[in-house]
Amino acid sequence: MSGKPKLHYFNGRGRMESIRWLLAAAGVEFEECFLETKDDLTKLQKDGSLLFQQVPMVEIDGMKMVQSRAIGNYIATKYNLYGNDLKERALIDMYVEAVIDLNELLMTHAFQPADKKAQHFATIMDKATNRYFPVYEKVLKDHGQDFLVGNRFSKADVQLLETLLMAEECKPDILAKFPFLQSFKARISNIPTIKKFLQPGSQRKPPLHEKDVPKLMKIFH
């Protein structure tokens, strides 16, 4: 039996993508078991693998973990991506929770009805450039270090980079007014484990497109 974590989810980003990013950043190889049909999901539900009847689910260290934040926290703690003390961990949690808020908006864009897409896109741009990115820009400027918390690579750096790249997929020049975020993106992207994950052929997933939505709806609804 393989000792690698095993990820159960559909073959796409969704709420598993941040978990993939964390494992990749830690240099941990993982396997993936993709849900292709509603029956695949039902089987996991019926055999007791899903505590709350939903994915993502990760088999790791003899556990079948669900709830993406719990999984992420476990991985971050296990692989020393969670700060040096309680205060650093609190900062990491604050930064990550805000990233998740923006990430949710980015993830759900493909699911918006045609008549709501323009407004949803405008909301993403407004919140990214007026609420979230200015905060991280100021943190990096005031902190004066390579990383968001302390001077050590953490879960917060990983998940901010993931979301910056997703935002650039929506609008390539979205970081134009944020020089510290641009430098951060370049710097974190060059960490060897991250650089490897950003290469073609890695387990990083492409953006979700409208054509993918019907297949997902058949699995989850």
Topology (elements, then pairings):
Blueprint: E1 6-9, H1 17-25, E2 31-34, H2 38-46, E3 57-60, E4 63-66, H3 68-78, H4 86-107, H5 117-143, H6 155-170, H7 179-189, H8 192-197, H9 213-220
Parallel strand pairs: 1-2
Antiparallel strand pairs: 1-3, 3-4
Write the H/E string, N to C.
EHEHEEHHHHHHH
Structural class: alpha+beta
Q: What is the CATH topology of the largest domain?
A: Glutathione S-transferase Yfyf (Class Pi), Chain A, domain 2
The share of residues in extended strands comes to 5-15%
Distance between the termini: 33 Å
Q: How many separate helices?
A: 9
| CATH architecture term of the largest domain | Up-down Bundle
The description of the largest β-sheet is:
4 strands, mixed
Classified by CATH, the class of the largest domain is Mainly Alpha
Widest sheet: strand order?
Answer: 2-1-3-4
Number of strands: 4
What would you note in describing this structure?
This protein has 221 residues and is an alpha+beta fold. It has 2 domains: 90 residues, 3-Layer(aba) Sandwich (Glutaredoxin); 105 residues, Glutathione S-transferase Yfyf (Class Pi), Chain A, domain 2, CATH 1.20.1050. Helix content is 54%, strand content 7%. The chain has 9 helices and 4 strands; from the N terminus they run βαβαββααααααα. The protein has a 4-stranded mixed sheet, with helices on one face. A hairpin with a 2-residue loop joins strand 3 and strand 4. Helix 4 runs parallel beside helix 6. The radius of gyration is 18 Å and the shape is globular. The two termini are 33 Å apart.
